Amino acid sequence: MKLPIMTSVMVVRQKIHENEADRNVTIQVIMSTAALSNHIPDLNLITYYAEKQQSFLSRISPWTKFSYLILIVLLVTLTANITLLAVLYLVILIAYAAAHLPLRKLFGWYTMPVIFVISLVGIMAWSEPGNPIISFTVAGFPVTLTDNGILLVVTLLLKALIVVTYSLLFLMTTQYKYFSAIIYRVFPSPLDQIFLMTYRFLFLTLSMTGSILNAVRSRGGSLIHSIFIQGQMFAEVFALVFIRSFERSERVNKAMIARGFSGSYGTVTTIPSLRITEYLFICAGVAVVLAVALTTPSFGG
């Protein structure tokens, strides 16, 4: 027996100015009650925009947006041209803003990928050859930051922000029933089932984590300023989340079996087909990726 996938979104409404460019327009912005941090993407908020959004991007076929996700990942993998990457990022950011998606929250959500990139290549940047910009000695060893080192960090940051921004744009303009249908049709079993089950359980885990963090704050946890004590406290919180998540997953599994689950989530949702203009748009994207691949020395010579 195949069961339909259900999602629930807990949100409250608040009237604010969504974008700086829309100071004269007051619109509905949804603030999730389960948001853990302004720096962590809020799945409830993302899902709400996906279900309620009525922008021009919402009317584009999900297949088109999914195809461009693949093309963008290929493009940022193939090229290190900072001009091309900057233009691509600006185009995606403009599309994000034109769809009336929350720019301020997007910039807050950039925190995690920026920290990841800097922690990954921050040390590598100091070993890149090039024209020295900053040079000093640490424990008798010379350390030099060159223009190529800075260029490396900027390039990888742009690549990360491009993929993150477009992924959020895709998720926030595509209804979950279409998104799950694409996963169901594209990925082989059991990968599709693992993805769909993980996505559904994330809502339960985030809600549980939010409840625990609220309990910590209500007991004065936010007043502790010692890094060591806070680190220890949050390590205990996430250990508790892991244990409770494991227990919750067993209860959810038993509840699903009791309701007839036989090991497969299915979907019969019909995904909107591509229009002629969308086919041409995808062909143009493929042509750009091929052109970049052919002009990249390591690929096209």
What does this 3D model show about the protein?
There is one protein chain. This protein is mainly α. The chain has a domain at 190-263. Helix content is 61%, strand content 8%. It is built from eleven helices and four strands; from the N terminus they run ββαααααββαααααα. It has helices at 43-52, 62-78, 82-98, 103-109, 111-121, 147-172, 176-186, 191-218, 227-258, 276-295, 297-300, and strands at 11-16, 27-32, 132-138, 141-146. The strands form two sheets. The chain has a two-stranded antiparallel ribbon. Strands 3-4 form a two-stranded antiparallel ribbon. Helix 2 packs antiparallel against helix 6, helix 3 (82-98) packs parallel to helix 6 and helix 5 packs antiparallel against helix 6 (147-172). The longest helix has 32 residues, at 227-258. Residues 1-34 have low confidence and may be disordered.
Mean pLDDT: 79
Q: Widest sheet: strand order? A: 1-2
Counted by DSSP, the helix tally is: 11
Counting DSSP E segments of at least 2 residues, the number of strands comes to 4
Strand residue content: 5-15%
Percent of residues in helices comes to 55-70%
Along the chain, the helix and strand elements come as EEHHHHHEEHHHHHH
Q: Quick one: biggest sheet?
A: 2 strands, antiparallel
